[in-house]
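Two proteins were folded this term; both appear here.
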Amino acid sequence: MQKIISSPPSRNKVTSNHNFFASHTTLSLSLSLSSLFSLCVSLQNQNKLRRNRNKKRKKHTNLTQNCNPSMPCFTPHHSLLLLLLSIFFFSLSVTAARTSSFHSLRIQDGIEGGGEGEHYHEVLPWKTRRSMAEEEATSNASLILAQKRTTRKDPLDNFNRYTGGWNISNRHYIASVVFTAVPFFVVAAVWFVVFGLSLSLICLCYCCCPREPYGYSRLAYALSLIFLILFTLAAIVGCVLLYTAQGKFHGSTTSTLKYVVSQADFTAENLRNVSHYLDAAQKIGVDAVFLPGDVQKNIDEVQTKINSSAAELSSKTKENSETIKDVIDAMRLALVIVAAVMLFLAFLGFLFSIFGLQGLVYFLVIVGWILVAGTFILCGVFLFLHNVVADTCVAMDGWVQNPTAHTALDEILPCVDNATAQETLLRTRDVTHQLVNLVDNIVSNVTNRNLPPAAVPLYYNQSGPLMPRLCNPFNSDLTNRSCADGEVSLDNAAEVWKNYTCEVSSSGICKTPGRMTPTIYGQMEAAVNVSYGLYHYGPFLVDLQDCTFVRKTFTDISNDHCPGLQRNSQLIYIGLVLVSAAVMLSLIFWVIYARERRHRVYTKQFIEG
């Protein structure tokens, strides 16, 4: 069996992905250092302000002693708590993004018993017959599509490695791909639980142990505002990137599906055309001479198989494409809604924080808390979709280089049954051979003979130069045959023979020199047209026999469509991660900035009062 030729992932792509996550990790560290510094400055300024409270000490004595003496009072620094949460969740999201199985479409792959190490773009022999692949598949190892890429842990099989290859109808394959998105589901669950508990703890402290909101640091206030602006802008950029990428991804997937359906429809239409030509051949008669009865019986049998194969090819491809299209449309709607809602949330949260609308800010924090969890879940869902698409492209590459009948790729574009294709090819050659023989017999025994008037109805006063015989493209054993000298080919026979037509009287007798009456010419022209049509579809049937049309379709998809799918799905993935992380940090800085702003206002009022 031929080797599946593959290429390792691009070093530049891997480097760019690491740079992407490294930049975000650096941003997280710089954020934590700056915020810790601002908190320290804030604490120092609080000590300074306490020294200036001599004039108001008596007035505020009761406010500083609101805690119940019998109950210990826990009063943490809420900005510090939220900051630690932001560092924790951002690091967790970056870790999830780096540990998730997000691969390039060009990845090393193989089959059982196969080799590796060559490059994908190496030129391979194109005319690899499917029958040869079937023989090898029977005697050697069977083809496993995208085996190396799809080797993942299977949660349905005690987390053992799944080794069955690409198969969208196999629940173990689906489960193994879903498992690659588990890190994002874990991040969503941890975010939802831990941030919810943190908000509950902060609310409990505010209710049970209220304190004076004094203490204000210009540096902390400015840094919180700067980071709030940065993360809001990051959320906006992520939403725009997400919306743009989903439009391109939907367009590329739609064009890919349309191409697959068009190829299937084209093949089915050609099969129907062959069936129509065979049907016409049954009705062809030249001078009351028709095809033999056994040939007509064979035509009836093969027509049934052809029509069944054409109907199955069209219906199965259309059904599967509609199912995939429904999933893609649902994913597009979800991405559009997420982009719009997150953009609206980030913008409103920023405005409400700037104008000090604390009640609305806290309401948006609750809403954003839930939406961020949902966005992380969507990251996982789209990672699952991306991996399925990438696996499919690799599986197509593998099948093209090792064409085998009846694989899981039949779910996308099935090959026509090999026996049906082979029988159709033989029947079309046989019918073409028989029709040409029928026409040549009429030429030799009727039109080119100077018969006496007593030979009616074969006699019609034929005269003039002899007609050339029709070239039979096949020998009696249905192998290809070259035309002999003096023979006319199928493509121009009707035009040449028109010059041998005579004008007839009312009784049907030629009154001008000629070898054919218009009636006989029309019958022979019809026979030639049917023969030419069947001969014309010969190469198509040869390609159908070894499934070349499927191989060509998958090659075109791999070369022309898969790169766009990869690029756009990666942009969606980056956009989702960016939106999730930016809105998550924006939520935290809404609270931090609202606190700093409230302390700033109270401190100014306290000093001025």
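Next, the second protein.
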Amino acid sequence: MGTAFILILVATRAGLPISSSNAIVGGFLGAGVGASGISAIILPPSDTVVQVFTFGAAGAVAGAIVLSFIAFTLQGELRLAAAIGAICGGAVIVPILMFLGILKLSGILAIVLFIFISPIVGMLSAFLLDILVSHLFRYSRQNLMTRIFQPLHVLACLAQAISHGGNDRQNAVGG
């Protein structure tokens, strides 16, 4: 934990971007390895890793095909659609399979995997919500839209500020 504290302190003082959560996870991981040895890390079985990559690749191919088809019908950029579809398909399939009970992840693999998956799923969810709201309110007057969404925007900003402040409270010690 001391190493995580020093890393956060030095990087913050130097003005370097750092993720405090990742530093803390690394500190806990290092403390566990220091106290109990490498056996403290729960490494996944090799068949689980193969399953994750197989399902991820299948989701990427499916996402690329679906989004490429949509781009083709709308006469859009096919390569960009295939790339975005592959990224989103590969990221979305793992949580879906975990929810259905087909894929069981635990330990360090789940942590590392969701560090990469969660931002993609968040951006995809925000994009789909934006499309839904735009479609539902496309014929509404600007006055009504401002009255409805301004208080909701303030509440969303408040929730984000509280979450951001709670997650990055470690940066306060660095300056």
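DSSP finds six helices and no strands in the chain. Residues 44-116 form one domain. These notes refer to the second protein only.
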